[in-house]
Design a protein that fits this description.
This protein is α+β, with helices and mostly antiparallel strands. Helices cover about 35% and strands about 30% of the residues. The strands form 2 sheets. It has a 5-stranded antiparallel sheet, covered by helices on one side. It has a 4-stranded mixed sheet with strand order 8-7-6-9, covered by helices on one side.
Length: about 170
């Protein structure tokens, strides 16, 4: 389970560890959406909603409305800047530490400017894969440090990531 690094002052000295690499980057690549994008989301949502009503599947109709609204809200969301670090104990994202003992392998998918991400496979069932944006971080330096702690194993980009990039999320 990830460790939260927000400790009381007397606990912090016991939590000392060496930071090997650190960087900051937006949590995801933001694409400005035009009004046409939102119109398309609305039209598709209304179309599926009408189909669900015709089929008298009211629960599905409600889910379609909720999904369309969520899709539009998520598309408008601007990314916040997130801090990442490779430490001697694990991978730190903001104030959460993912210990190397809980992680299985990694892969760096680096094909600029399209993809610049670090994929981490966890041993945990509820958190199977982390996708960490690299931003301007040096992928060779990150790989060099991760090889000391984790196995490098090719990981294919998830279908959700491919779809999100296609729809310019």
């Amino acid at each position: 389970m990830p460790e939260t690094l927000n400790k009381t002052p007397e606990e912090k000295p016991a939590q000392q560890f060496l930071t090997l690499v650190k960087w900051q980057t937006p949590e995801f690549e933001y694409h400005e959406k035009s009004s046409d994008w939102y119109w398309a989301v609305g039209i598709i949502t209304v179309g599926f909603f009408a189909l669900a009503i015709i089929l008298k599947n009211f629960l599905f109709a409600l889910m379609i409305l909720l999904a369309g609204f969520t899709f539009a809200m998520y598309g408008a969301k601007k990314p916040k800047t997130v801090s990442f670090a490779l430490t001697s104990r694990g991978i730190k994202i903001e104030n959460v530490l993912y210990p190397y003992d809980d992680l299985k392998s990694f892969w760096i998918n680096y094909d600029p400017p399209r993809v610049k991400e670090l994929y981490i496979i966890s041993k945990k069932v509820l958190l199977p894969q982390l996708s960490i944006p690299l931003g301007q971080a040096n992928p060779n330096e990150i790989r060099e440090h991760l090889l000391k702690f984790l196995e490098e194993k090719e990981i294919q980009e998830s279908f959700a990531d491919v779809i999100a990039r296609f729809f310019r999320f």
